[in-house]
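Quick log. Single chain, no ligands specified.
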Amino acid sequence: ARIEAGERGATLAGGELAAARWTKHLRPARGVLYVATGTVEQAMVRLRLLPDPQGNVEMLRAVLPPDVEAPQSLASPFLVHAELLRGEPDSRLRETADMIFDRLLRARLQEPAT
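-> predicted structure:
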């Protein structure tokens, strides 16, 4: 699925899709798309996706506002990190999660709270 430039912010890439964009290290096998505006059904029509229970794209309604430090088409790196670590142990996903933590999260977690 391709995120349309004219729909920036309407659909956010998460999971392996976002991790691949941030790290250039992972070839995504699965994708998570968070629908930030409109309904999941509207997003599926806009992206020309057909429902497939065995498919490799998961569409979810976004429950958090977009991360102000993340590019507009990507979900929060905190969410992406958690997604990579859920489910079956997978060394390639763990390695990519570690890269995201080191590059994007470590400094943010060490900042003093205001």
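Helices lie at 15-23, 40-46, 77-85, 91-110.
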